[in-house]
Amino acid sequence: MKNINYLFLLILLIIPRYAASETDIHLIQACHLNSLLTVANSQSYAEVIPLQQANLAAEISAKIVNVAIEVGDKVTKGEVLFSLDDRQWQLQLKQLNANTQGTKARHKLATYQLKQRNKLRIGANISKELLQKHKTEVASLTAELESQNFQKQQLQLTISKTKITAPFDGVIVQRKVNLGEWVNPGQTVASLLNPNKVKIKTFLDTQQLASLKKTTKLKLHINQDIFPVKQQSLLPILDLDKNMRPLLLKPTGKIPLAGSQGQLRWQSMTKKIPFRYLLKLKEHYGVMLLVDNKAHFHKLPNTLPGRSTAIALPDKTLIITTGFRQLQSGDSVKNQGCKNIK
């Protein structure tokens, strides 16, 4: 009888421990890593920036006497868009040309006389002082001609500024003055844009830049339109607000409109694990592995919230896919297989 009671008491002591150990085991699902990896689609905000855009301004004060363009007109490089009143400078140029002709005549005569005086000097028929006087006169007239030539160049430059021309091929997108108005230096008269010269600018983080190195196709999506583009240059600066690097791209086919905004999209050639299988423990993102029937947290550095990430583990590594957010490293788990993986 005592032996029976002792055996019964021993059973009662064993059963709770067994039951407790069963409740400490977490039921989970775990799948091989290679069955979870996907090809990541990445995207970033991008804007189209014009490469040739100019506000055309007057360089002198004058009245507009001719307007050759309207908003929307296509113009070519060197085409005259506005003409300013140049009469005062044309008159000054005529007066200067007349003065120059007179100076040239006097210079010619003085040069001839100097040659004659030099011949007389050889025969000692002229004084040294008189010869020097003729040399000084020729030098003075030569300097006067140079001064008049400089004045002529200045007038010609001013006259050239009375014609406001297109610095490149483009389209007039704004006109700010009309016929008969007076303009001053620095005053904008029109805006010109070349719609065929644009660049695309975007900002990328470290992971995006790494995936771009291996991508083959980049596309800019603007509303319903798609524009193939290619990398041009990664700028050697860091945007402190975004903690990202600016990347410049250029279209390889159809040109997007300057000033438009869209999404730069690409598909990485590197397979990554989706963010839904990741959890965060103590400021670190990672995955929960199944190792010897226990959960083990594996950190994944450089992981960004909401982003799939690269993972350097063997393909057959078991990744816990259900219930892992309630687990801690070292918890006992029981794998119920890999199910419902999309």
List the topology elements.
Layout: H1 2-23, E1 26-28, E2 30-32, E3 38-50, E4 53-57, E5 62-67, E6 74-75, E7 80-84, H2 87-122, H3 128-160, E8 163-165, E9 170-175, E10 182-183, E11 188-193, E12 198-204, H4 206-212, E13 218-222, E14 225-234, E15 245-251, E16 261-272, E17 279-281, E18 284-291, E19 294-299, E20 318-320, E21 333-335
Parallel strand pairs: 1-21
Antiparallel strand pairs: 2-20, 3-12, 3-16, 4-11, 5-7, 5-10, 6-9, 7-8, 9-11, 12-15, 13-14, 13-16, 14-15, 17-18, 18-19
Multimeric status of the protein? single chain
CATH superfamily of the domain at 42-52 and 196-270: Efflux pump adaptor protein, beta barrel domain
Kindly provide the name of the CATH class of the domain at 42-52 and 196-270.
Mainly Beta
The main sheet orders its strands as 3-12-15-14-13-16
Polypeptide structure, described:
This protein has 342 residues and is an alpha+beta fold. Among the domains are: 42-52 and 196-270, Elongation Factor Tu (Ef-tu), domain 3; 58-85 and 162-195, Beta Barrel (OB fold (Dihydrolipoamide Acetyltransferase, E2P)); 86-161. Helices cover 29% and strands 35% of the residues. Strands 3-12-15-14-13-16 form a 6-stranded antiparallel β-barrel. Strands 4-11-9-6 form a 4-stranded antiparallel beta sheet, with no helix packed on it. Strand 17 (279-281) and strand 18 form a beta hairpin. The longest helix is centred in the first third of the chain and has 36 residues, at 87-122.
Q: How would you sum up this structure in a few lines?
A:
The radius of gyration is 43 Å and the shape is elongated. The chain is α+β, with helices and mostly antiparallel strands. Helices cover 29% and strands 35% of the residues.
